[in-house]
Amino acid sequence: MVKKSPLFYYSLFYISGIYIGNNISCQTELFFYLSLTTLVISLYLFYLTYSTKSFKLDIYLKSFIFLTFFFSGIFNMGSSPYAKKNLVSTLLRNKQIEELKLTVKTSPKIGQNSSSIECHAIDYNENIILYSKKKIDSINLGDIITINYSPIEISNRDKNFNYKEYQAKRRYFTYGFLNESDLKRVQAKGKSIIFIIRLKRDRLIQRVRYIYDGSEWCDILIALVSGEKSYLEDKTKEIYKASGAIHLMAVSGLHIGFIYYFTLNILAFMGKGRVMKYLKALLLILSIWFYCAFSGFSPSSIRASIMISILTISELFSGRYISLNALCASALIIIVVQPQSLFNIGFQLSYVALLSIIVINPFFRVTISNNRVIQYCWNIITISISCQIGTSLITINNFGYFPLYFMVSNLILMPLTAVVLYSFSAITLLGFSGVAVNFLTQIIKTTIDVMYKTALKIESLPFSIIYIKKSITTEILAYSIVVSLISIILYSSRKKSLQSRSNE
Question: What range does the domain containing 424 cover?
Answer without folding.
Answer: 216-252+333-497
